[in-house]
Amino acid sequence: MTVPSASSPSGRAATGSVLTRTRAVAAAAALTVAGGVAAVAITTSSPAAAEPGDVVVSESFSSGTLPAGWNAVDGAWKVENGRLYGTSASASANNKITFGRHLNDFRFEATMRFESVSAATRWASLGIDVPADGATPWWIATMRSGTTAANGLEFAQRTTANAWVVTNTASAPYAAGTGRDVRVAVEVHGSQARWIFDGREMMRTSSLQRSTDGVQALFVNGGTVSYDDVVVTELPPNGYIRPEGSPFTVIAHRGASAAAPENTLVAQEIARRGGADWIENDVQPSKDGVPFILHDDTVDRTTDGTGKIRSLTAAQIKALDAGSWFAPQYVGERVPTLAEQLADLRTRGGNLLLEIKGKHTKDEVATIIQVIRDEQMMGRVFVQSFEVDALRYTYELAPELPLGLLRSSLDADPVAISKELHLTAYNPDGNALLAKPEVIAPLHDAGVAVMAWTMDSAGLWQRLERIGTDAIITNRAAELVGWNSAFTQRASAEPTVEIASPAEGARLDRAQSPVIAVAATNAETVTVTLDGKKSAAGRKLDLAKLTAGRHTVTAEVTGPEGTATATSTFTVTVSQAGLGYLILTSGADPSAVDTMAVKLAHGQYAQLASWVDRQAGRTVPAEVASVIAADARTLALR
């Protein structure tokens, strides 16, 4: 959107505006207590020489002069009292100082203070992508002194025509005003960025148009602003992993499929207006090789036609009505081609999570990639599929495209297959993920994001948030956007804790090895006990050494705002199979194992118990002997 004022970026309300929250990741193997997304974009620009984590710029202005390599393009810039001061006497003067170097993935943070302003609408900015000489076009993350205004924070571009294009706006929780230090940051991944105000994510954009040589900059408009502690850090390229303090990335399943006919341009438009970060759609070829957006292998369910999509020509598919099945107001909606969908996203905004549906040949995948290239959308498309071959072909033909593997059930080793297929994200069924949350931590450690499908209720979203899921594919994208915002706004600083495993009321046999998994927020310390004795999150419970019956895990967390406690009681059950497992894993002498196994097989439980009592500490280790004898006596009484 172009804004008339040449001096004051302003625009529509940001659809992705959110406040921060503390993120907790619980896994069965480990506990993380912390304080998503920003989404990544792959570009063709040369990578920066820095490695992820390297601090590229760190300036506290202690030298008393402008740092070497900092270019005061226009306006008055000076270093005084350990701060950098920039002054713009006129609201029409966008004064700037450039520095740093071109980076694709980075975090840019600084302490900003409005010393004086001509009006509350005046602003200062972090320059995200600015030519070293200050020429247009450039992109900025802006903060007004009247920060609580609807456009108190912005992402904006100054075009070569000296016009403003504002892509996103948001209001901060309090006004920066004058004389107040505010720590601000922007995390950038290619064409996408997150605006962070005093540690709180306020909004996202996916509309940056990156150059190949733009650097960082500081701006001032209509006042005097001071800066301190400017830091630029190289980030890992996978911005899909939900950062600390960020909500979910919202992915609209088949567009706004709960509100409009799925996989159509109107569903895409509704999802976009609802604030979805990504549109998820499916692609398949027509008989004559044109990639179309359709989920089923036939057109029967979602159009007024019949037949397999691969048996129909492009002309036949384009003649079908793809809207009337959903509601009368959608009569005349058409099945879009991939090219049409991408053109709509390119011109109107948005990113595409594209599922290659069903088996595809390498040539068919090549056609999909060529369409993406032709539509100049390589930096805004993420490819996913259940089909491993489709992902292999995509990587071979376009390694710059991020890849996601769809799974109905979890792989035995998600990290291994992620490395094998060069995955950016591992995308399982959300219910499968909730059943085994411990897979998330090692995937994150390997630099792989986790996107869960297809989850449509607030209860499920809350559980997925607690275990550290990065993104949600949902039929109710607008509701999830609202949930993100409401959840973060009501989040308090009081600590919370939940025991995810073993689950409350679980009945476990001897052969199982549950892991203590704890999810905590706003916590500095975590104490875990098992039946009153010290234990730890991530500990694997050896049920062969616990007595039969009820046991209680307790987790207590402490934080700046207090303490919180959770308990989970589970039962170790006695069974013939469980007793057999105890015997086989007892570490007893082989002859003793044989003797116990024979008595077990013949149901001689009382004799087994008496025999084990006599052999305790001799041929059968004493610790396990007492458990075997107790279980045998329990079975003898049944």
From TrEMBL:
Membrane-crossing segments per the record: none
Pfam families: GDPD (PF03009)
Gene3D superfamilies associated with the record: Exo-inulinase, domain 1, Immunoglobulins, Phosphatidylinositol (PI) phosphodiesterase
PROSITE patterns tied to this protein: GP_PDE (PS51704)
GO molecular function: phosphoric diester hydrolase activity
InterPro entries to which the protein is assigned, alphabetical: GP_PDE_dom, Ig-like_fold, PLC-like_Pdiesterase_TIM-brl
GO biological process, one term: lipid metabolic process
Signal peptide bounds: none
Record-annotated GP-PDE domain positions: 248-484
Coiled coil: none
Xref: PANTHER family: GLYCEROPHOSPHODIESTER PHOSPHODIESTERASE (PTHR46211:SF14), GLYCEROPHOSPHORYL DIESTER PHOSPHODIESTERASE (PTHR46211)
Protein name: Glycerophosphodiester phosphodiesterase
Higher taxonomy: Bacteria, Bacillati, Actinomycetota, Actinomycetes, Micromonosporales
